[in-house]
């Protein structure tokens, strides 16, 4: 039914996802990825529009560089966006029809894509296990394990918090932290050494209702 909604890349967030996952990019555009997260968090249609665009970029795409960029965008959004987006991503339908479908043997995905998908499913299943409305991904994960699928060894450094709350610190510092959450440990070390540090300032503790 997606075709009835028009081109997924025509929405504001869809346009940015198209750019952020373009095969001509040599590496991730982290500033654009963060902008995508902001649109998802700040607009009513952002979560649904973003997921439609990610799905279009991944499903049936034989350009696995674009698929990897899309998976990175998806991972970054899950770590930086809220419950409205999590409900859609963690649904059985999305995990099965987009992520699991991508790694079916008939699609012959490279190992890097195969392992990335399994890592996402595994980490989300672990993170969302205690949330009743987010357990679709848990069901898929446990089903895949029962069928004998081997998941990559869990790297605890990769399991950064799914949602990084915004505190009253500077925007520059906040965006640096958000980008670092989205990276692998090795990339974190590289990027952290190149990011300009804003002057330290005391941050009030973040309180939750």
TrEMBL record:
A GO biological-process term: signal transduction
CDD domains the record matches: VHS_Tom1
Record-linked InterPro entries: ENTH_VHS (IPR008942), VHS_dom (IPR002014)
SUPFAM superfamilies: ENTH/VHS domain
Keywords: Protein transport, Transport
A Gene Ontology term for the protein's cellular component: endosome
Entry keyword Manganese: no
Membrane-crossing residue ranges in chain numbering: none
GO MF annotation terms: clathrin binding; phosphatidylinositol binding; ubiquitin binding
Domain VHS: 20-152
Source taxon at top rank: Eukaryota
SMART domains linked to this entry: VHS
Stored Pfam families: VHS
Family assignment from sequence similarity: Belongs to the TOM1 family.
Name of the molecule in the record: VHS domain-containing protein
Source lineage: Eukaryota, Metazoa, Chordata, Craniata, Vertebrata
């Amino acid at each position: 039914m997606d075709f009835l909604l028009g081109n997924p890349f025509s929405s504001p967030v869809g346009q940015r996802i198209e750019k952020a996952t373009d095969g001509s990019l040599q590496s991730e555009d982290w500033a654009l990825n963060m902008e995508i997260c902001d649109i998802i968090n700040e607009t009513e249609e952002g979560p649904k529009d973003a997921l439609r665009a990610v799905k279009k970029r991944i499903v049936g795409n034989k350009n696995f560089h674009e698929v990897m960029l899309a998976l990175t965008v998806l991972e970054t959004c899950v770590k930086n966006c809220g419950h409205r987006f999590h409900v859609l991503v963690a649904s059985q339908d999305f995990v099965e029809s987009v992520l699991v479908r991508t790694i079916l043997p008939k699609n012959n995905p490279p190992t890097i894509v195969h392992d990335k998908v399994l890592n996402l499913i595994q980490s989300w299943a672990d993170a969302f296990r205690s949330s009743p409305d987010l357990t679709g991904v848990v069901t898929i994960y446990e089903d895949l394990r029962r069928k004998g699928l081997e998941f990559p060894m869990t790297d605890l450094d990769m399991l950064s918090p799914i949602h990084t709350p915004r505190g009253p610190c500077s925007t520059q510092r906040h965006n640096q932290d958000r980008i670092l959450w989205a990276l692998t440990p090795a990339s974190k070390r590289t990027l952290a050494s190149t990011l300009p540090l804003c002057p330290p300032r005391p941050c009030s503790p973040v309180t939750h209702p």
